[in-house]
Amino acid sequence: MKVVCEYCDAYIESTDEKCPNCGAPNTHFVRTASDSPKTIEQLREFCASKNLPLEKMHVHIGENYQAPKAFGIYRDDNTGRFIVYKNKADGTRAVRYEGADEAYAVNEIYMKIKDLILDARANTAPTQQRTSSTPYPIMPKKINWKKWGLIIAVLAVLWVIGTFMEGKTGYYKQNDNVYYRHGSHWYALDNGVWDRTSEEIDDDYYIGNSYYGDGDSSFKEFPEYSFRDDWSSSSDYDSDSDWSSYDDWDSDDDYSWSDSYDSYDYDSSYDWDSDW
Predict the structure, then answer these.
(1) H helices within the chain, ranges in order?
(2) Start-to-end CA span in the chain (Å)
(3) How many degrees, rounded to 5, is the angle at CA 104 between CA 84 and CA 220?
(4) What global pTM score does this model have?
(5) 3-class SS at 73?
(6) CA 170, CA 206: separation in Å to the nearest integer?
(7) Helix axis angle, 40-49 relative to 102-124, nearest 10°?
(8) How far apart are the C-alpha atoms of 93 and 137, rounded to whole Å?
(9) What is the per-residue pLDDT for 173?
(10) pLDDT at position 150 over 60
């Protein structure tokens, strides 16, 4: 993804540690896994190299698939924006991401593909057969549901309070200045460049999760992928979505498709009612 060098205003790659033009450090430097796909075409090639049965997994790469029970990513020819989606069992669509950052969009579906592999692996693992020499387990003590219900209720209240205090993720506009908020982090747009700011904007100035600049040609969409390291501890990006929490797919314990997973039926066994 292209970013602007803050010292010479040249456009450089976010993965450049230093500006090739002036040699200054790239303040938007993003470390990425060397072999991870960054484009839709690279993702398609990656899945082929792992022998992933995408049709069986209900994954559609580069296709705006309309039928129920499907994950997919495609580029909208009219807007040029990349869309990552899930079609639920009832046919309704949940959009995971819509924006100009192809690498970020590909990363979202890439991680979901890995989740699908893990789900098949977990549900087709051989179970231990009981023999006469296998001792029966000790029966657990009776669960105090009242106590656990109280604990869960308290945790739910704390979660709601925390979410409310963090404020809404998305765009804000005050005095013709555009800002972006993610949790407790604020970013300001200045001459087409996004950067961290100590300013905090009132929630009344929230304008939504999507914003297209209202005709301002200098407006640049907030580059979520570039700042993702800032949010590594955020509840919005838990361990299931955090890039660093995954092993290298090319390690000995990789995630190529195994014939033992063929018995897993994504159509009837997978949770198609959740948003993602």
Answers:
(1) 40-49, 54-57, 102-124, 145-166, 266-269
(2) 25
(3) 105
(4) 0.50
(5) strand
(6) 7
(7) 20
(8) 44
(9) 93
(10) yes
Q: Which residues pair with 185 in a beta bridge?
A: 182
β-sheet bridge partners, residue 195: 188
Q: How does DSSP classify residue 126?
A: P
CB 191 within 8 A of CB 216: no
- How are beta strands 177-182 and 82-87 bridged, if at all? unpaired
How many Å apart are CA 234 and CA 232, to the nearest integer?
A: 6
DSSP state of 27: T
Hey, CA dihedral for 99, 104, 106, 110, is it positive or negative?
negative
**How far apart are the C-alpha atoms of 9 and 22, rounded to whole Å?**
10
Is the torsion defined by CA of 9, 13, 15, 18 positive or negative?
negative
Residue owning tokens 């105090």: 144
Percent helix, strand, coil in the chain (nearest 5)? 30, 20, 50
Q: Look at the alpha carbons of 144, 146, 147, 152 in this order and tell me if their dihedral is positive or negative.
A: positive
Length of the chain: 276
Using CB atoms within 10 Å of the CB of residue 100, give its burial: 0 to 12 exposed, 13 to 18 middle, 19+ buried: middle
Structure tokens at 16: 């450049």
Beta bridge partners of 72: 60, 85
Nearest one of 83, 244, 230 to 169, comparing CA atoms: 230
The 10s digit of each residue's pLDDT in 228-254 is 666 654 434 333 333 333 344 555 446
| Single-letter residue type at 71 | F
